Amino acid sequence: MSARGPRVGVVTFPGSLDDRDALRAVETMGGVGVPLWHAERDLRDVDAVILPGGFSYGDYLRCGAIARFAPVMGEVAAFAARGGPVLGICNGFQILCESGLLHGALIRNRSLRFVCREVWLRVETSQTAVTGELSPGETIQVPIKHGEGQWVATPEQLEVVEGGGLVVFRYASREGVVDDAHNPNGAMHHVAGVRNERGNVVGLMPHPEHAVDPDVGPTGGQPILASLLASAMAGAR
User: Fold this and answer.
1) pTM higher than 0.90 for the full model?
2) Among the four 3, 148, 177, 233, which has the fewest Cβ within 10 Å?
3) Is 63 one of the catalytic residues?
């Protein structure tokens, strides 16, 4: 770990477009942003990893389906298996699902339209690498921007996710009401983000890296990234 704070690697794939935003957000929150290239197998001694939003490999074939085979993903999977904190945002969430690190899949929004707006999320658990600074039932505001953000799962996967408490965020009203009116993409059970069983790997469609600067919008991303940095720091000790 750097003396300046935990080192957070942000992977850039061909087509990534939020990698620089994620690096800036990490730095804003007190961490050290470490650029990682998709074709490399060296994570450069990072304490956490972010898979950012964008259109990895042009989203050809299927969102995240090609990125899962990138050389760096073998190292990310090994890092996650050791308990390292991994956060997948939007396309990063899709990549984590395609890689089998998270349950479910992301498909076209139910409306078949791209959505771009601010939404409210209800926190379902504090037992993850990105929600340690949050409480269940709390709501936070963050932006979304995606065309394929509808989280779906098989009945067997859904039973595991819901039965194991693996839902991290649900789309909701500011007051925490979960219903179709506040679900922007038709996601099953209004799921906006899920975790693995250990809680160190989390994926979500909304963009916390775009919600850290109060001068440009909501700051719901601050506690998410603060939690990630705290998890990274704890693991680096």
Assistant:
1) yes
2) 3
3) no
Q: What local confidence, expressed as pLDDT, does residue 236 receive?
A: 65
pLDDT band at 1 (very low <50, low <70, confident <90, very high): low
Length of the chain: 237
- Alpha carbon separation from 6 to 10, 75, 175, 202, 237 (Å, rounded): 13, 18, 34, 18, 10
Give the span between the Cα atoms of 57 and 85, in whole angstroms. Answer: 24
- Which of the residues 75, 90, 103, 124 is marked catalytic? 90
For the question of residue 209 being annotated catalytic, the response is yes
Q: Which of 146, 182, 207, 210 is catalytic?
A: 207
Give the pLDDT score at 84: 98
Catalytic residue among 97, 148, 209, 210, which?
209
Residue type, 88: G
| C-beta atoms surrounding 135 within 10 Å | 10
From the DSSP assignment, how many helices (H) and strands (E) are in the chain? 5, 11
pLDDT tens-digit map of 113-163: 999 999 999 999 999 999 999 999 999 999 999 999 999 999 999 999 999
Give Cβ neighbours of residue 185 (< 8 Å, ≥ 6 apart): 109, 110, 111, 115, 144, 146, 149, 150, 205
The pLDDT of residue 113? 97
What region does 91 belong to: left with phi over 0, alpha with psi -120 to 50, or beta?
alpha
Q: What average pLDDT does the structure give for the chain?
A: 96
